[in-house]
């Protein structure tokens, strides 16, 4: 994978616009790069790819006079056409399977195929969420076992399994905090969030009706502890801190911050998006965390699927555990698993209620548990160490030519952060990202975190070989050197992707969000 | 450790480049109090594929598989046949292992698929614009209420009593924290929904009225009068659909005047999966509301050479740009489930969806007629699509469901489970029938139900 190009061949760039030359084709295709029309341009209303009995118009119905009389406007394809349509579309996508995907804060690690196989076992895939509980004991046991792993890995006593993704987990944590304050009649209004936080943090706090205030960062890229302590008071409900933070650094004063927040009557929410840096090596429970979501689709290898589904279980401290959402799984003395739902009045205690219809992302639970069992406690520790090692290796291989604002702050964790300060002649981080596309890479996260100008956040993960990382460094350095030299050709990159730069302004000015015709 | 490519030699070479003596040097910023002396205790060590698979299979074997028995559960999650090609397509690594399409030049596959998906959902719902998915139907339902409060600048939502109780719970949980007022109710056990009663609850303070279609008891009725009444008071009509296949047979919510249509898309492509991941669908009838929508939107544009292409757009609504002023905090949604839905819908097409819907309804009618002949059983609904409510003549439905499971029949969802402690609903059983149901299954349910009712006090 990603073996260095030993042949030395490179595409020539001879034409005036920088495109490699060659005759135009009749179809617009270029060999394996195949254009694909929209479904609605090739599908037909009378074609289907499934064999079902024809509609018997004379059959009696009990639709209460609401039978559809007009056309829906859908089109169909036969199975061979369907497979080809989506196969062609898939080839216009970049995925981890294809190459290095160092998207910072997203933990694009290899998705093991055993996980996929296990999730598809009929005993997991073909069971109904409302089946009688004695008929789904294995499913409830999966939830219970995964929860136990998460508690042990984080050193926390309780876990809520139902949140559907990271941001939903954040909401779960913040609602538990609000419920805990309400339970003691304490109407706090403010949540403190560092400037470097993911956008979901302030959005979540605002959704829960909190006022959001920024916490400043120190020049070395960490939370300004003095400023934070000065702001604490009886109106502060919680702080939301990402650790390791989005500048790629471990918040070494986290325990001190947590103690101060607790002393002021607040709670500590930790954004667990970056848990991959410390999984199996550091337990957030030892740092004074009250609530933390875990992205199973990051740290625990469930696939991102082009934007989900995710899964965001939340671990809780003793203080917040009673407020965790419904439903949750318990085991009785006889060993039988059961769900605590609305009806279990005594057991549900002060739970803040239900966040989603059923019990969480079962399909992600089976994958994540499979992954944990594969790695074990020793393997997960190695995961964190290799992820951090790879990131530091990239940091130290780039810092001589690329502005690394926090390189002097010590080792980074699992991601390395750079900025575009030294680029010349109008070249930007975006140009470097698009240049990397031509080199065969998915770009790093760009323009995040907001605290660094033209931020480039590189997260290699642990599932890359040294050869793959070395090749990336070579390519990254080459593109950065072009940006430092003010190479205007970079402004038109990518040249070799299925599309050149797309006009996002036009898309937003006159939104076209569905096929018309 | 088969997922870790670095060798010890690699690690040493990399540490040397970094200038660190050992990997511990990279964790120096971890405070003393949180340092561990080795792997976390109380957890197993790494294991090979065979051992892991054996463990997971032993857990799977403890579940009663829906496809192995006569199966009639619904209530927001339906068992449909998913064509084999759906799963092979969603397992292509370019779809499976891609991220949210932030770099559109190398994500046109996902983006074009989302554009097609949005079009399919909008047309199915009779709407102008659909988004690129939310987590599931229940969270989509809350997002619709939240959006209605933004659009109308009012804080009160009226929920139909026949809205899925879990959906109502989610809305109430969220509203408690946002300070919105939720007027909810319980379903009245009667053959047709009480729309007049619902209309009477709409007032000038109402942001939206939320109605499920088909409703939690499987009933269907024309919602046009509710739309008119809501609009007359300046409120929006939110229609919730938990069974998209129904819309191949019955009028779309948009046609009846719904302003926001949300639903669960699990029926197509996704499967049961014990409740997740599922697929939240979200659409608006009038494109003027698009800037208040939650979640990702994919739009058409052109590239620098004038070629058509697709991008995520109107992201100034979203958390990564607007932070605390975003329309929702959602980030990751249900992209791969949207793909599964879209592939299944493509295989069906207009013709296949209508045929699928007709087949569901035909079998449901057959089942209703047969079950009505079981002594002590009555079918409540006047109208239904593929799910209806059985009244069990005063017998406790929960107990009967458990008893049926012991007899190898998953016979339905008892309303007592969905509405614990509500006596009036304890004797009602929800029965769902799909194209996967056979006439033998129906016969088995009728037979076992008759025995179970006889033997249950």
UniProtKB/TrEMBL annotation, chain A:
Record flagged with keyword Transport: no
GO terms classed as biological process: glycine decarboxylation via glycine cleavage system
Q: Glycine dehydrogenase C-terminal domain location, by residue?
A: 385-481
Q: What class of enzyme is it?
A: oxidoreductase
Region (Disordered) residue spans: 1-23
Q: Name one GO cellular component term.
A: glycine cleavage complex
Keyword terms of this UniProt record:
Oxidoreductase, Pyridoxal phosphate
Read off the Gene3D superfamilies from this record: 6.20.440.10, Aspartate Aminotransferase, domain 1 (3.90.1150.10), Type I PLP-dependent aspartate aminotransferase-like (Major domain) (3.40.640.10)
Answer whether the UniProt record assigns the keyword Oxidoreductase to this protein: yes
Give EC number(s), comma-separated: 1.4.4.2
MF annotations from Gene Ontology: glycine binding; glycine dehydrogenase (decarboxylating) activity; pyridoxal phosphate binding
Domain Aminotransferase class V, which positions?
A: 184-305
Q: Which reaction does it catalyse?
A: N(6)-[(R)-lipoyl]-L-lysyl-[glycine-cleavage complex H protein] + glycine + H(+) = N(6)-[(R)-S(8)-aminomethyldihydrolipoyl]-L-lysyl-[glycine-cleavage complex H protein] + CO2
One of the Pfam families matching this protein, by short name = Aminotran_5
What domain of life does the native source organism fall in?
A: Bacteria
Main function: The glycine cleavage system catalyzes the degradation of glycine. The P protein binds the alpha-amino group of glycine through its pyridoxal phosphate cofactor; CO(2) is released and the remaining methylamine moiety is then transferred to the lipoamide cofactor of the H protein.
From the Swiss-Prot or TrEMBL record, give the protein name.
glycine dehydrogenase (aminomethyl-transferring)
Which organism does this sequence originate in? Answer: Erythrobacter dokdonensis DSW-74
From TrEMBL, chain B:
- Could you say which EC number(s) this protein's record lists? 1.4.4.2
Q: Which InterPro entries match?
A: GcvPA, GDC-P_N, GDC_P, PyrdxlP-dep_Trfase, PyrdxlP-dep_Trfase_major, PyrdxlP-dep_Trfase_small
Q: Its Gene Ontology molecular function terms?
A: glycine dehydrogenase (decarboxylating) activity
Sorted alphabetically, which CDD domains does this protein's record hold?
A: GDC-P
The subunit structure is: The glycine cleavage system is composed of four proteins: P, T, L and H. In this organism, the P 'protein' is a heterodimer of two subunits.
What the protein does comes down to: The glycine cleavage system catalyzes the degradation of glycine. The P protein binds the alpha-amino group of glycine through its pyridoxal phosphate cofactor; CO(2) is released and the remaining methylamine moiety is then transferred to the lipoamide cofactor of the H protein.
Q: Protein name, please? A: Probable glycine dehydrogenase (decarboxylating) subunit 1
